Amino acid sequence: MASRSTELALARLQQIRQSMESFNAPSVAAQKALGQYFTRLPLARILAALSCGPNVHSAIDPMCGIGDLLDATAERQWSCSVPLQMLLGVEIDESLAAVSAQRMAEVSIAYQVEDASIMTGDVFRALSCRTLSEQYDLVIANPPYVRYQRMAKAGPGVVSQHHALQQLLADASARLLPDAERSAWDLLVQAYPATADLAVPSWFLCSLLVKSGGRLGIVLPDAWLSRDYADVPMYMLWRFFHPEFIVRGIDAGWFGGAHVHTSLIVAERLATSDALIPLARRTPKPDESVLELDMDGNACTVRLVSEQLMAMGPCPSARGDRARAVQDVLAGRVSLRVREVHDLTFETLQRASRHKWYGTLEPDGRMLDRAAPRGTSVPSSIEVRECAGMTTFEQLCPSGIHVGQGLRTGCNDFFYARLASSSGAFHKDARIITGRAFGGSHLSVPSECLRLAVRHYRELSWPLVSSSDLTSVLLYLAGWFLPEDAEHLKGSSDDDTSLESSWKRLPIQLADHIRTAAQTRVGAGIPIPLLSAVRTNTGGAVSSLARSRGVFLWYMLPQLQSRHLASIFVPRVNHDSPKAYLKRDESVVVDANFVTVWSTDAVWTENALLALLNSSWMSLAMERQGTCLGGGALKVDAIQLRHARVPVILGQDTAALAQLGSAMTSAVGAADVLPRVDDLLARLSLPPGASPQEIRDTSTATRVRLIEARSRRQKKETS
User: What number of other Cβ atoms are within 10 A of residue 62's Cβ?
Assistant: First the structure.
């Protein structure tokens, strides 16, 4: 009788699964508001197969959606002859919770789960209200991917929501964690910024629910992992867990319309005695490694890998044995790499060392000698042995190269304008055309108030940008005052008098334009001076005086920094492969539409940077690090470019790059030079003594991979 009921439950469950294959959120708005991009069963089976094991008796998905991960977990444990005793899902959306509850009713019978249930509600509230009061052998989840800007639109402001989530996590840690762990844990929870996506507190929540010795299996977007605020939860992961598997999506195909590069991470919770040891003090253990898998988003590939893993015999309980079992099953089907835990820990420490909380959690301070990668001297940059130790690679930035973002004005319609003439040259005065908010009116402006600006990459010639081709200008009013503001700022002290000698009063026409702008509402009806990135303008050199006199100098942008004036820049949004551009005029401003690159090391000239950043190696790195947007465009942020890895490039090779970069901007032309740049980087990426043929083959293979990556992305534009 039990066998018959199991068969019937399996048949009904299969019908539910088929109906779920095309199940989507009720609307695009709901999908984005709640991050409802469902895992789907094939991908859920991959994560479950890597996460489950003989010691898993209880499991929870705190953001369960339609129940794919719960279903796959129960199936995997049953196939390993270790049926779950308890399976719990939590879902905030009542309609989805009902769908999952129906599914769990069949799962519990089909896979002999003693207690399978769905809780409806906000898991953060449930945790704080003690509705959830225990930890689990396995926490498996696909946290909602909701940007902080969208969270703010849905309710209270970003800062208040951020503080509320931090307090809920602190309350939960007080109940669930050993006292010895809480100080480190709570410090990290308080350290993640308000600009973090909802995935960050969700990761903390999931981690809190894992028992000592239990497992965490989680889906995370790569764009999130590459951002600066990822430093906090990444340190938390390595401090309290031992990561075992990382499955990287090599394109943005896992979640259909989301167009997000995604990873699966599986990690084992450390015992308290191990978690209390700072990372830099940990002694490497034999065979401590992480298995990395690269898998594309093709549905056939995902389904094939899921079938192979689900058919794998019961996973051994020993960590190293689990990785070897997965390697045996998937060898030749996906790209596999074994990375040493010691080296990955060093990367985490290097990133964490930039933050104030680092000194508290790593009492050895900022000296990372103890944690440096084995087999190398302690470098000033991150160096990681790859390719079986044959080649040393480093992150782009520690090589003396700096990466940032161009100027964000806060209100482009006011601060940017176009030259009325087609030439980028202007002398004493210039005629400009204002932005749309001002009807495109014409103004006569002193040239001293203007800076030529790089704003739109479609207007640029590659690789060398000539100032004479630029028509955008920045209204840069440092030292220029409205007459009424100058009157209020007049002082009697010597310091004030010396400042006043350098002040300039705005001409009547431009002053009237600023007064009009002060009353102009844009976007959601907010006056320009009160826009979030405009109201922070304080007047630069006279900011303290202005504050003391109650004068609001919103129209004065802060002093321009190196990142705003950098000679090398890369568009942030690209439909073709990313390209780096060079400008020779140091006074020209680069807009926030671009990632900017500059060097404080004289060895790295602008020509050397131009050649490096236009290589197929770097283009492929940007394809892999960047974020695929809707329509197939590629978005490259500064933090993503910073984390791109390059072979270590020493003095003579840097000089060779400089010569090649110079040739790119000469009559020789970039198209003829770039293959030579590719060959140089190919040689550096190979072991010493590589033959010319090996170098050419490696260079060609890099270009082929670049074409394949670009084609996969661009297919989304036409699909």
Answer: 25
Name the nearest CA neighbour of 452 among 440, 442, 462, 460.
460
Domains and CATH numbers, the chain: 2-270 (3.40.50.150), 401-405+563-718 (no CATH), 412-549 (no CATH)
User: How is 114-176 classified by DSSP, letter by letter?
Assistant: SEEEEEES-HHHHHHTTSS---EEEEEE------HHHHHHHSS-HHHHHHHHHHHHHHHHHHH
Cα–Cα distance for residue pair 11/17, rounded to 1 Å = 10
- CA-to-CA separations, 637 to 193, 229, 258, 456, 634, in angstroms, rounded: 18, 13, 18, 16, 10
How would you class 461 by CB atoms within 10 Å of its CB: exposed for 0-12, middle for 13-18, buried for 19 or more? exposed
Angle in degrees, CA 224, 324, 234, rounded to 5: 20
Instruction: Among 140-144, 179-183, 669-673, name the one with the lowest average pLDDT.
Output: 669-673
Report whether pLDDT(66) > 70. Answer: yes
Shortest CA distance to 123 belongs to which of 202, 68, 220?
A: 202
Tokens at 371, concatenated:
């944690």
What does pTM read for this prediction? 0.65
Residue in this structure with the two tokens 């989507």, named with its chain if needed: 24
Cis before 463? omega within 30: yes
pLDDT for res 111 = 93
φ/ψ (deg, to 5) at 89: -120, 145
Q: What is the pLDDT of residues 88-145, one digit of tens each?
A: 999 988 988 999 999 999 999 999 999 999 999 888 888 766 667 789 999 999 988 6
Distance CA(206)–CA(60), nearest Å, equals 9
Residue that is written with structure tokens 């551009």 in the block: 581
Q: In sequence order, what are the residues at sequence separation of 6 or more whose Cβ sits closer than 8 angstroms to the Cβ of residue 506?
A: 449, 477, 480, 481, 482, 483, 514
**Helix/strand/coil for 635:** strand
| Nearest-angstrom CA–CA distance, 397 and 226 | 14
CA distances from 592 to 402, 455, 531 (A): 16, 8, 17
User: What per-residue string of b and e applies to 294-304 under the rule 16 or more CB within 10 Å gives b?
Assistant: ebbbeeeebbb
On average, the pLDDT of the chain sits at 83
The dihedral built from the CA positions of residue 590, 591, 593 and 595, taken in this order, carries a sign that is: positive
Residue 319 token pair: 């960590």
- Residue 386: closest CA among 396, 397, 398, 394: 394
